[in-house]
Amino acid sequence: MTRQEFIKMCSLLGISIPFQSVLAACKSNNINSETTFEGKVLIIGAGAAGLTAGYLLNQKGIEFQILEASSVYGGRMKINTEFVDFPIPLGAEWLHVERGIFDEIINNSSVQNTIETTPYDPDNDYALFEGQQVSLGDLGFDIDQKFINASWYDFFAQYIVPSIQDKIIFNQLVDTINYSDENILVTTENEEFTADKVIITTPVKLLQNGLISFTPQLPENKLNAINNVTVWDGFKAFIEFSEKFYPAAVGFNIIPESAGQKLYYDASYGQNSDRHILGLFTVGTGTLPYRNLSDSELIDYMLEELDGIFNNQASSNYIKHISQNWNNEPFAKGAYVSDQEDWRRIRTLGESVDNKLFFAGTVYTTGEDWSSVHTAARSAIRTINEIT
């Protein structure tokens, strides 16, 4: 079963949040309230999974540190706050499950989440697909919601990071992880760290590229999963126009379906703003040719493409644009794992090694869902439960 097939099954059964299996859809993902673990945990990466893991360890009073390769936290939740008057999500953008995921992550009933989201309106919103008007549901927007003047990054910045920020050590690119002894030794370019458990949230593309050397070598089934999983290329762009001439979304047919996705969409949807921003989201082969163009070539190409769809209204209303090529990000090197990936390979990616190395992130899951912020957070919850 692929990720898309699983989510479709949940939708047909009226299940809005994927869990361990369809039959266990009502099971809670709550974090265990008690712990017998008394050691130190080292977390590699300060993206959604790493931040969630650190936050939950902090709630339990367990010693931990987060090593982040870059100079900022957030990973693929990256945003731009200068382009217009609301956050532009250069990475993760939509809420793909019910709002209860926020409470799962916060894990504190006394904290009220004020982050606002809005669903699409199936009665008034529509999309185009290869020139034909279709419903948003036809493009897969069944349960997705847009953040209102906020983003996934803002949620973590407001509720998760403040209590753990002093535990994040930036500019620490991990070179080696030696888990052959009782204490695990983690080395970066300049320092050494020891821990009893290590949580690895490094994007799988970087593990494919051999960014981290493991001693002993990871088990063969884990290495096979890492090396054979398909990581899609990723590219996003945002264009401001003086007038709105486009629907909520414009989909394109990528052949074969497993090769990627491409979508123009109303990035201003639901925002408290009068700016007209059209976003481009594309992964896999859909990123071609965008990611290989210069900036001037890129906007010329997009405007010509949109002019052909909307009777030359794009060029006449163009104001400015920005873009994000995720293949060029040194600590990502791509977008996320294909929606068409084999769930058994995903499950292997999420399995721990020798009760010492644990994996959490968008793709290190149990195989029922992957490649979203909520899957990263839930994988962190699962990992902390397993450790403690």
Automatic annotation (TrEMBL):
Q: Which PROSITE patterns match?
A: PROKAR_LIPOPROTEIN
UniProt cross-references to InterPro entries, sorted A to Z = Amino_oxidase, FAD/NAD-bd_sf, Flavin_monoamine_oxidase
- Name the protein family: Belongs to the tryptophan 2-monooxygenase family.
Task: Specify the superkingdom.
Answer: Bacteria
Which reactions are catalysed by this chain?
L-tryptophan + O2 = indole-3-acetamide + CO2 + H2O
Query: What PANTHER family does the entry give?
Result: FLAVIN MONOAMINE OXIDASE (PTHR10742), LYSINE-SPECIFIC HISTONE DEMETHYLASE 2 (PTHR10742:SF410)
Q: What is its EC number?
A: 1.13.12.3
Keywords noted in UniProt? Auxin biosynthesis
Q: What is this protein called?
A: Tryptophan 2-monooxygenase
Which EC class, in a word? oxidoreductase
The pathway entry for this protein reads as: Plant hormone metabolism; auxin biosynthesis
Domain Amine oxidase, by residue range, is: 165-383
Q: Does the keyword Cell wall biogenesis/degradation apply?
A: no
Gene3D superfamilies found in the cross-reference section? 3.90.660.10, FAD/NAD(P)-binding domain
Native species: Winogradskyella haliclonae
